[in-house]
Structure formats: C-alpha cells, structure tokens
Amino acid sequence: MRALHIITGLGVGGAEQQLRLLIRHLPVDCDVVTLTNPGAVADGLAADGVRVVHLGMTGNRDLTALPRLVRIVRDGGYDLVHTHLYRACLYGRLAARLAGVRAIVATEHSLGDSQMEGRPLGAGVRALYLAGERLGRVTVAVSPTVADRLRRWGVPAPRIEVVPNGIDLARFRFDPLQRHRTRQRLGLPEGAYVIGGIGRLTAGKRFDVLVRALARLPGDHWLLLVGGGPEENVLRRTAHEAGVADRVLFAGERPCVPDGSPGHDLPSLVFAMDVLASPSPEESFGLAIVEALASGLPVRYASCPAIEALPPHSAPAARRVSGGADAFARALAEARAAGPAPRSAPEAAHHYSITRSAARLMDVYARTASPSPSPSPSPQEVTAS
Fold it and tell me: At what angle do helices 207-214 and 325-337 cross, to 10 degrees?
C-alpha cells in the first residue's frame, strides 16, 4: 500500500511528532506533504528516509495550492490519503477526491469543546469542517472524548474510528544516569524538586497557573517548561512579577524522537523532572501526560481524556486537579510529601504503546481501502451544499 499523509505544518508539535512516530511503525510506503512550515519534524522525517514535499501554501485562502496538491496526489499513484489538522483536512480531502482517490482518512488531533487548534469554534468553522468531512470515508478520533465531540457536531457515528495516540515506551523508560546528567547541565541545585510542564506555550495551556503556583511553594521547587510558542515572553514576565524568574527554566521546543538537534531531547528532560503538571482545561488526548507516566512520573492534570478513558488503577500516580494556582500548589505539595516512587511505567502507558496504535490504524486503512457500499458525496455536491 502507498499512502500520502497531508499535514498543515511540520514544526515541533504533538500531531506532527505523532505522525513521524506512526510512519516509523506503519508497514506502508508513506510520503508526506506539508502545506506550510517544513520545520524540525520535516527534517526528522527526511532523516528517516521519508519523502517530504513542501507545498508552499501562503495562507488559509491560498486556492492556488489546491491544483498543485491535486497533481501531487494524482502523480503519486497513492492507494490512500491520510490528512492531519484542520487546514490540511479541508484541502487534502478535496484534492484526493479530485485526483480520483476515494480511500481518504482524516485524524482529528485537536478538537476541544470551545476551540480547535487554538481557533474558536464558531458556526463557520463547524460548517466548513462538516462539509469537508463528508468527502472522506473515515474520521479518526484520538480519544473517546474527541469521538463524542465529533458526534455532537453531526459527524455520523459509523464514520468515526477511535485510534489513540501512541508513545514509544522504550524511549521514555526512566534512565537515572540521564536524569543526573540532564539536571547537571540545566544547572539545577542538588535536591531541587522539579515541576515539569510540556506543551506549546499558548494561553490555552495555562502555564501561567504553574508559574503562580511555584510562587506559593518553597524555594527548592523549580519549574521546567518544555515547548515554544507565542506566550513565552508573557510567561517570563509573569515569572518576574511573581518573584520566581530565577527558578523557571525554559527548555524550548524538544523533539520526542531523535532528529540531530543540539541539547536535550524530550525523554531526558522528562527524566529530570519529579512531577508533571498539566493545567490545560481542554485536551483532546493528553500525550505529554502519558509520556510522563511512561517515565514513572506522578502527574497532576486538569484534563486528560487518555487517562479518564481508563480504569483508575491503570494510572495510580495521576490525579485530577480542579482550580487555579492555589489548587495546583496544594496538589504539587501533596505529590512531594508522598515521596519518590519507583520510576516504572503503569498499565496506562502500556495501553498506549505506538505498536498498538499503528496496528489499529492499519485495520482502519484496510477497511477504508476496500470497496465502500455507500459512496461519499462528490466534491461538486459538497461545494453546492
């Protein structure tokens, strides 16, 4: 089988890195088209031997990109097209249909109750999403929570498949030597208790809650933020105003798979932490939380569909926190008071192994590529609607 993955961009982000990890474990000949931003993950895919094409799209309404994308799909002779993220799903599904490909899968990575990939969910966004969705055969939800949201939006239940994100368990297996080296290189004092936060530095992730919580904790507590984004300067200013700027470390964007970039990769930074905190109230999966659990970390979170979908005993070190800085400060103090535990992966982490996710996606591919008894509407029908 030959498959083409179409994604909006390939900077360091959860959906982008998940795509790279999946391709490594899919028994499929895969190429990738990125509409914009061929960043670090594009370099990593190329290093893996994957052909990556940058479409050079200049904006959401750059319609000149569509015929170029149609030509790429048609010339590639692909059996299946798999789209990722909002813009790529809109353009990719339409291009695939115009190129004559009917086996079309789209993964919904970032659908929240009030936003999708940071954009507010107004009536126009929803209408355009649903019109594009009709051009595909299957929409993959990364969690049952996302599947429920899709059904409430009006996506027919038979068109939805749940294939959770996956993690590379071996890469997140705790390494005490790496922990020691990483903490030394970060300049952390001996005995520092490190609170970790992982994700895009955007307002929706609410990392300011962790900065303010740090100000309520003793001086041997540190905050290590891993990720980049538009809120970094705001967070630095918040840390300065709270009097904790000297105890907040910004590690920048770090890949979860090797890409040759200098500095620590994500697993080594996770090893350096003592607890992971995720104050984001609206997650579609909670990949950073599952990766932290795989490293044996205790976790305090506001929202994590991946954990909430499993029995409580599968992640005994994970606790949900309701509230702001005061609530997180109390929860983090309680985590420290509980003392260190063996850094071993719980059942929840094994449940989300990348090999399991890749196998489930292959089942979706096989069903999607088989003849469909009820064909989807044509691009002309959707355009007319």
Answer: 60
Report the alpha-carbon distance of residue 213 to residue 29 in Å, rounded.
47
Render 108-167 in DSSP notation, one character per residue. E--B-SSEETTEE--HHHHHHHHHHHTTSSEEEESSHHHHHHHHHHT--GGGEEE----B
Give tens-digit pLDDT for 13-27.
888 999 999 999 999
Give the CA-trace dihedral at 222, 283, 111, 206, to 10 degrees.
-40
| pTM as predicted | 0.88
**What is the DSSP track for 175-188?**
-HHHHHHHHHHHTP
Q: Based on the number of CB atoms within 10 Å of its own CB, is 97 exposed (0-12), middle (13-18) or buried (19 or more)? A: buried
| Range 85-91 average pLDDT | 92
User: Chain-centre distance of CA 266, in angstroms?
Assistant: 14
| CA 85/CA 307 separation, integer angstroms | 23
Mean pLDDT of 231-242: 98
For residue 195, give the nearest of 273, 141, 128 by alpha carbon. 273
C-alpha distances in Å from residue 336, one per residue of 120, 277, 330: 37, 12, 10
CA atoms of 81 and 76, how far apart (whole Å) = 11
